[in-house]
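Support request, priority: normal
Reporter: lab tech (M.K.)
Component: structure prediction queue

Hi team, I submitted a job for Major facilitator superfamily MFS_1 from Kribbella flavida yesterday, and the status page still shows it as pending. I've pasted the exact input below so you can check whether something in the sequence is tripping the parser. The sequence length should be 443 residues. Please let me know if I need to resubmit or if it's stuck on your end.
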Amino acid sequence: MPVATSSGGRPADGEKPGIRGRLARLRVDLTPWRSSRDFRILVISGTVFYLGAMVGYVALPFQLYQLTGSNFAVGVMGLVTIAPLVVFGLYGGALADHVDRRKMLIVTGIAQVAICALLLANTLLASPQVWLIYVCGALNAIASSLQRPSREALFPRVVRHEDMPAAVTLNSLTLQVGQLAGPALGGVLVGTAGVAWAFGIELVGLVAATLLFMLLGSYKTSEHSTPPSLRAIGDGIKYAFRRRDLLGTYAVDMVGMFLAMPIVLFPAFATEVLKEPKLLGLLYSAEAAGAMLATLTSGWARRVHHHGRAVVIATITWGASVGVAGLAPNIWFAIAFFAVAGGADMISGLFRAVIWNQTIPDEMRGRLAGIEMLSYSLGPLGGQSRSGLVADLTSVRTSIVSGGVLCVAGVIGTAVWLKDFWRYDARTDEHAVRERELRGSAG
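Reply from support: The job had stalled in the queue. We restarted it manually and it finished. Here are the results:
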């Protein structure tokens, strides 16, 4: 018997949707893509940019190892980029609240093109200079840290308030396409054509993304915006810590990533524990595949209003899945649970971004984007150090499993501590209601 429907094709009141209707609810919501030209530009430019950047992400450490033969020399690049990430991430957020965000994207894009061109030129030398690679790495961290807050702060300006969950989901596809295709393409290029070709592909992606930024509309800030300064940065930090719902988005993610970040252990896990070194690449791609599947079936997210609870539950699932993967009797078992972990991490990121974009005032959005960038960057960096240290002191399995268990306990403890985060409801939260009304009147 056919399901009764309204004139819009939805199940009539009181009727339950059929199987086809339930499956339709899982599909990605394309409303922001259809309704906003500038949103389409941001997504396309982000996809092109991130795909090229991930090719370079593979090429740069490969070149460093080729030139030095030292794992430590490769690791030093991470140390070189930490300080620029912290300092210029916060300053870039303050800039994003004071200048035209479109101009920030263009200027930093041009800077990234110049840096990549310098890397390519160095690669083509008879004797590439190692010190110049480190300099380019630091400069690129500065440019990226200045650019990212402006890009993140633009999303609430280019889509309607109620479309933000769908917009965040579609934007996450940018990262996932890059994470899946970028390293694979980079690996093929450095192994066959050479490092120069990989940097060349990255350069083309950066040029294309910067040209697309030029097509965006102008997004000037208010006449009463705060000029970038230590005081402005401090005001942003105070605002973030005053709001316990925002504090929860940072704290839960940092706890989850610091305690259960197993990626640094994948080579040892695949080679020494699971005895499958040839399948190491599948461990790296498992989380991205899980995240992609979660994204493509995320239509249900628009009906969730308790976003804090969704973040907590998803992060607990991340930790539990990582812990179970650590007990894997074979690599396929591990891949399956790392994929579940990747899907859970994507869901956590989705609802964290929705809280940020639906509740933070536009005049603070850039500064808070800088803080967000630090929260989801420093947690994994610290987590990799923790995982490696525990593995050296105990074993690889112990490090992965204990990290998962500690993550679950830590997230539960954080949720108990930050009750306002657990209780957050987008329909009634004062900040969400105010922003919904402001954007509705502006629209």
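Residues 37-68 form the longest helix (32 residues). The chain has 18 helices and no strands. Let us know if anything else looks off. Ticket resolved.
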